[in-house]
Amino acid sequence: MRDRRPRVAVIFGGRSPDQAVRCGATGRPFDCQGIDAACANTSWQSDAHRLESGVTAGALLLTPLILAFAFRAIDAWRPVWLVTLLATPSSIVTSALFSALGNGAASRAGSVVWFVWLAFVALHLLRVASDERQMTAPAAAPRRS
């Protein structure tokens, strides 16, 4: 059987497949994760990514809380305000419980909670839109025989 290593190296630009995956199309290495051996995220891109991730995480945690109080003020949305208020704490608790299985399990379980909440709000939006459409629909004209 013929050795395929030289051909693979040519396909990935002289890099091993592992190095090519870490570098992508740009040829520059991606930021490494904390679990990578000899990891040192010292680039400005790594600092910017860390800052952006913090802003995104803060916005993600605050959004349901802000929406909950907005929903409480609107009569059509009042039924979902309490569930929306509980979305953030339930996501944190779920992530904490699943963290015993590892960081990957914790983030996935927290994401499932967010998507369930998002689906709940989306279904309520469809129901509110349907009710408004029925209320504003013109009356059907009487049929002539």
Folded structure, characterized:
The structure is a single chain. The chain is mainly α. It has a domain at about 60-135. Helix content is about 65%, strand content about 0%. The protein has 6 helices and no strands. It has helices at about 5-10, 15-25, 45-75, 80-85, 85-100, 105-135. Helix 5 (about 85-100) packs antiparallel against helix 6. The longest helix has about 35 residues, at about 105-135. It is elongated, with a radius of gyration of 25 Å. The N and C termini lie far apart (about 85 Å). The relative contact order is 0.06.
- Helix content estimate: 55-70%
In the predicted model, the low-confidence regions spanning at least 5 consecutive residues are: none
Mean pLDDT: 80
- State which percent range the strand residues make up: under 5%
Report, as a whole number of angstroms, the end-to-end distance. 85 Å
Structural class: mainly alpha
Shape, per Cα inertia axes = elongated
Please give the structural blueprint.
Elements: H1 5-11, H2 17-23, H3 44-73, H4 81-85, H5 87-98, H6 103-136
Helix pairs in contact: 5-6
In short:
66% of the residues lie in helices and 0% in strands. It has helices at 5-11, 17-23, 44-73, 81-85, 87-98, 103-136.
Provide the descriptors you would attach to this structure in a database record.
single chain; 145 residues; mainly alpha; 0% strand
